[in-house]
Amino acid sequence: YNIFCTPCHGRLGDGNGMIAQRGFALRRPPGNYHTERLRKMPIGHFYDVIVNGYGTMYSYASRIQDVNDRWGIAAYIRALQLSQGATMNDVPGAE
Questions:
Q1: pTM, whole model, 2 decimals?
Q2: What's the mean pLDDT when you consider all of the chain?
Q3: Which label site among 4, 45, 81, 86 has the fewest CB atoms less than 10 Å from its CB?
């Protein structure tokens, strides 16, 4: 994720990476994983986007060839989504 996704999507997955900050967002903003639409997407959607691209994002299939790496990135995106929407009630043992 940090190598291939962060430049556009940002470290938090908010679509505010360096490429977006340098003007690409004026053309078409990179996806923000924290929108309701993307929160509801099945994890396979992110895998598919890695393989086939989406909108102005080209395919990363030739760059991320290992299937396990692709699923790992998709799982990391889901973890980012959960982390940014978490509350103290989601922390085990929090009172």
A1: 0.87
A2: 92
A3: 86
